[in-house]
């Protein structure tokens, strides 16, 4: 019978073997592929970096030759002599030969340069090895025309019948530069520097991503610089290369889908001197062929082990200890309150008829009912705490409004118009801030702005009798706190400092130390009674919110702040209260320095 313990245990062991070996095969293949991919990417980029340095070296020699010829006095004297219509032809020939010898010296100074020639618009060509010819055929060459139209400085591999002394007719890559001017359209002379294609191609052919891969050296427009067919990359790779050319990344690896529905690896490296790019494409399947063979081997081994497990399951299935053991473990988890873990330990709840199925089903139902009951109790407590917190918050505004309106009335009676306007303006800004009850958490900068308006009202009310200061230390701009925690403390400090003396001194220090935010309010008042300080520090006393809501005693402001902070921050909040030797009190609130709304408002203990 399939629902018997024997059948279920056999099925369980089979599934266990399949999952274990399947997961092992998947993880082994995935991790091995990650290692191989990382090695291939780093190796390819390293080789491209080496080749890029080599290309930069060759390009540097080419530009050095171009700079040498362009800035030389020989080239300037030659250009002036050729342009002089009064100079005899014999002297012009001598000047041409001198220029040819100069080009020969420049060519011999650099190993990578195969030839340097100068083409003039009148059909004159001067090359190394005393080559001075007048043949207007090169004026019709496409590379010569394109240079004046589009300023195409680099020519892909080609053979030139005029320049085959040193390269023996082998393909060359050329750089075109104007002589005597920087503007290509008005240039009378064009310098053509040839480098054998083999200087670029032979080192490039030694870089391989896979057996069938090819590394391409692409120009500024995305076309191959060497004798390579760009269409071998495919349309997807070419489109990706166009996007790569426009981004800021210098090198990287991109995975593409080819026309056969398989993935290819595109490795690229940008060469900074001329805007060239190295791009290589290799099929991912070829790189991981050995891993696919290993995966097939693991699959065969898994099938063999499953067959062996059938015989082991037949012997183990005669016992019933396993389901009973799981049931006992689930009961222990319920005792600890871990209901999810308890349910995960129980077998699936199906319509089975075995020795322990009824017990397991009943126990599962008991867990569900118990968890639902606890959840309902938690939600009720949560709603009650939120309501009590809102009540504490709304308790502050009426008390402050009463004192401020009395001040406005007094100022108006004294006809202190400017002070009245200032107090009303400060009051308006404070009321605008306090009317926003959508969230009990605000930026610290907004709370400090609220406090500054409040201090302005106090200074208007008491004048020189009140010495109050607000000091900030540390980076406070991005911090977030609960609102209205400073104003009640400042109000109490000012009020009780005037209780036994004619002047009041109140100093507020706000500082950030590591991951904590400190608010210190000190005054010169009579001090707080010891029994009140004991109640404030007592977490059991502080957790009783209902008496605080009904209280009308003198310490309502301090108690309100402490109650709200404990309700909001839980164990993350701390308070320190110290009385001076003769008079004065220092109250320090220590809050967590929070920069984002990432802490829940209740139940943080």
Automatic annotation (TrEMBL):
Transmembrane domains' residue ranges: 6-29, 298-318
A matching Pfam family: His_kinase
Reaction it catalyzes: ATP + protein L-histidine = ADP + protein N-phospho-L-histidine
Localization (cell): Cell membrane
Database matches in CDD domains: PDC2_HK_sensor
Listed GO MF terms: kinase activity
Superkingdom field: Bacteria
Histidine kinase domain: residues covered: 485-595
Transmembrane helix among keywords: yes
Every HAMP domain range: 318-375
Annotated EC: 2.7.13.3
Membrane topology classification: Multi-pass membrane protein
Keywords associated with the record: ATP-binding, Cell membrane, Kinase, Membrane, Nucleotide-binding, Phosphoprotein, Transferase, Transmembrane, Transmembrane helix, Two-component regulatory system
PANTHER family given in the database record: SENSOR HISTIDINE KINASE YPDA, SENSOR PROTEIN KINASE HPTS
Protein name: histidine kinase
UniProt source species: Paenibacillus taichungensis
Biological classification of the source: Bacteria, Bacillati, Bacillota, Bacilli, Bacillales
């Amino acid at each position: 019978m399939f629902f018997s313990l024997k059948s279920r245990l056999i099925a369980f062991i089979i599934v266990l073997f399949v999952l274990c070996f399947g997961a092992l095969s998947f993880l082994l293949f995935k991790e091995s592929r990650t290692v191989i991919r990382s090695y291939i990417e780093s190796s390819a980029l390293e080789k491209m970096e080496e080749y890029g340095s080599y290309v930069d070296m060759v390009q540097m020699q080419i530009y050095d030759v171009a700079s040498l010829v362009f800035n030389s006095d020989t080239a300037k004297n030659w250009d002036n002599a050729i342009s002089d219509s009064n100079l005899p032809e014999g002297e012009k020939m001598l000047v041409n030969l001198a220029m040819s010898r100069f080009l020969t010296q420049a060519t011999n100074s650099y190993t990578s340069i195969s030839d340097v020639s100068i083409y003039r618009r009148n059909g004159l060509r001067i090359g190394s090895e005393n080559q001075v010819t007048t043949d207007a055929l090169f004026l019709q060459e496409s590379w010569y025309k394109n240079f004046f139209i589009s300023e195409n400085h680099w020519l892909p591999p080609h053979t030139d019948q005029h320049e085959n002394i040193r390269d023996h007719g082998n393909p060359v890559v050329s750089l075109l530069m104007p002589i005597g001017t920087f503007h290509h359209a008005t240039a009378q002379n064009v310098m053509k520097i040839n480098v054998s294609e083999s200087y670029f191609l032979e080192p490039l052919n030694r870089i391989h991503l896979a057996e069938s891969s090819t590394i391409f050296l692409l120009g500024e427009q995305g076309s191959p610089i060497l004798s390579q067919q760009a269409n071998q990359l495919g349309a997807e790779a070419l489109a990706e290369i166009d996007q790569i050319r426009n981004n800021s990344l210098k090198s990287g690896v991109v995975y593409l889908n080819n026309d056969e529905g398989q993935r290819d690896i595109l490795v690229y490296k940008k060469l900074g001197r001329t805007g060239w790019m190295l791009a290589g494409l290799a099929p991912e399947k070829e790189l991981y062929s050995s891993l696919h063979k290993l995966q097939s081997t693991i699959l065969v081994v898994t099938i063999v082990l499953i067959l062996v497990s059938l015989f082991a399951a037949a012997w183990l299935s005669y016992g019933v200890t396993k389901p009973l053991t799981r049931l006992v473990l689930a009961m222990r988890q319920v005792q600890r309150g871990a209901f999810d873990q308890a349910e995960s330990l129980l077998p699936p709840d199906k319509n089975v008829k075995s020795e322990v199925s009824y017990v397991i089903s009943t126990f599962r139902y008991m867990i569900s009912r118990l968890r639902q009951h606890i959840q309902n109790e938690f939600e009720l407590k949560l709603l009650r705490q939120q309501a009590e917190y809102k009540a504490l918050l709304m308790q502050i505004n009426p008390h402050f409004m009463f004192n401020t309106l009395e001040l406005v009335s007094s100022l108006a009676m004294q006809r202190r118009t400017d002070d009245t306007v200032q107090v009303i303006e400060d009051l308006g800004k404070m009321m605008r801030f306090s009317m926003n009850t959508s969230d009990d958490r605000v930026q610290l900068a907004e709370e400090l702005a609220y406090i500054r308006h409040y201090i302005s009202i106090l200074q208007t009310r008491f004048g020189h009798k009140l010495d109050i200061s607000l000091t900030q230390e540390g980076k406070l701009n991005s911090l977030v706190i609960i609102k209205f925690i400073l104003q009640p403390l400042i109000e109490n400090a000012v009020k009780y400092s005037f209780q036994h003396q004619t002047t009041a001194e109140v100093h507020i220090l706000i500082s950030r130390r590591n991951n904590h935010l400190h608010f210190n309010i000190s005054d010169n008042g009579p001090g707080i009674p010891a029994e009140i300080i004991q109640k404030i520090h007592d977490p059991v006393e502080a957790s009783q919110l209902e008496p605080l809501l009904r209280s009308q005693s003198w310490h309502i402001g301090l108690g309100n702040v402490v109650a709200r902070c404990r309700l909001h921050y839980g164990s993350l909040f701390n308070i320190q209260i110290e009385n001076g030797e003769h008079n004065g009190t220092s109250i320090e609130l220590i809050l967590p320095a929070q920069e984002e709304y990432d802490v829940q408002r209740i139940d943080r203990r």
